[in-house]
Amino acid sequence: MKNLLKVFAIPTIFVSLLGSHHHHQEAKTETNVQHVDSVEKKKLAKRKLKWECRNCTPNEKVVLDFLQERGISDKVALSVIMGNIQQESMFNPNICEGGARVSYNQCHRGGFGLIQWTTVGRYRGLGHFASKYGGNPSELTTQLRYMVNEPQWVSAEKTFKKKGLNQGQYMNAAYRWLGWGVHGNRTHYSNQFLNRLYQVDL
How many domains are there within the chain? Predict the structure, then answer.
């Protein structure tokens, strides 16, 4: 009888060891899965994305890149800013109110440029900025540099940099920035840009 018990004890121990080994493998596999998930999450966190615009003009692409370099990354915020510039100038920096394509010094009435600088102070401010810091007041890059140094933009930019706001909130910030008299197609243009923006890896 004692010998029989010894014979049956061996498989019992073997099964016990096998079960322990199986549980160890499961725990190891689970740990590996968690490690992979953690690595993937870190990779996603490190991914740098930017918005690009489908079928956009060269000037529109320059403005979109410039805004993102300023730290504006929300798709809706970007589309609202782009939509407002579309309403103001169709992204033409050398345009005088009414549609005449003229240089800075030849626009004698109404607004001028990318965002149609209209008041005497803001219009002359563009010329002074170009003279002081170098640049042509009729060109896009100079106008963008001046635009983001105006106090109206500096105030509105705080809202533009916030993520997750709705179109109306960004549009209110755009009004504080531009102070338009007529809303026009701003919302329509903004929606068009919203549909044309897509993200790519840097």
Answer: 2
The answer to whether residues 42 and 98 belong to one domain is no
**How many C-beta neighbours within 10 Å does residue 146 have?**
24
- E strand or H helix at 178: helix 167-178
| CA 67 to the chain's CA centroid | 8
For the chain, 202 residues long, give each residue's pLDDT as a single digit of tens. 444 444 444 444 444 544 555 555 655 556 565 665 666 666 656 678 999 999 999 999 999 999 999 999 999 999 999 999 999 999 999 999 999 999 999 999 999 999 999 999 999 999 999 999 999 999 999 999 999 999 999 999 999 999 999 999 999 999 999 999 899 999 999 999 999 999 999 8
Q: Are residues 83 and 39 in the same domain?
A: no
- Give the largest CA-CA distance in the chain: 117
| 56 and 20 part of one domain | no
